[in-house]
User: Fold this.
Amino acid sequence: MPAAGSPAVHFPRRRPIGQAASREFEQASGFRFTDDSRWFIAREPSEEGSGSQMVVVNLRDGSVHHHAHISSYILAPRVGVVLGNVPAQRRDGDRPALELLHLNSGERIRIDHGRQATLSPDGRRAALLTQPPKGNQRLIVVDLQTLEIREVGQAGQFDSRPLWHPEGDRLALVQRDGESSGAVGLAVYAAGDDVGLLHELDQRWVLLYSRFDVYRASPDGERVERLTQGREHRIRFREHRLDWHAGPPDETSALYFSAFNEQDKSHGYLRHEPDEGARWLINQPRRLQFLQKADAADAFVVMAESATESPNFHFTDDDFRTLRRVTNTNPQQ
Assistant:
């Protein structure tokens, strides 16, 4: 793999924008601009007669650069880097590659067997997968400003595109064990200053939402279980974590769901136990939110408010029969 500091390369071909170029762009698509308005890229029919190629226009000097070997691309507009897919038939070897092209410097690196690239929330890094002919797949992160490459993790088979956490410090993927066709589950990797596997959701399921209900499903989609009964009563259920900083629930954990009735506008909470199924904890004609549990006791607090009641926290034990107000906010605030 070329080093990030490899010499700058020349663009394949340069041509001033003119009448011929204007006619050429009539069949172009996928138009994108960099944030500094210096570069414009698009996809056009390949000169070879099949497929497509990438064309790059320098809006400052009017030059046009064709990249016939790149069939599709992702643009990181903030840093002016293109992540281009190079099909196997357009390069030496029998596997595709991913090429990173820094538009301002002309520097580029090629990552053999690269695929499934996704940009970080700030647009300055990219996560992607590589599949060597032998061995495990690799999850890598590329700094798009320096083109530095860091390996984050390996697995027998990643089965999804990397998904960034909104804060940009974690990546989640579905992964398999490489020896069977069954999905292992979700894996979460650190992708900030430190890298590596954080935890695996080895319970082999994920939660999915419909308009009203929550379903538990295996990552391969073979097993799907409906956990709530909201559709019949137009009640919208969503997962509620008592502690979002704790690890993910496993097959023995109770699951909590918030509830909102679209007909009478009531709110509530539901708890699903692995052996007992789902049961209502509380349902009231006022807004309930921020349900939390004590660390070492079966005691809860929840905020309640209505059109005539200012928001206050209430205490209750595990049966949720009585709510005792523990705060007294100013109704004028």
Notes: The longest strand covers residues 183-191. DSSP finds one helix and 29 strands in the chain. The two ends are 61 Å apart (CA to CA). Helices lie at 19-24.
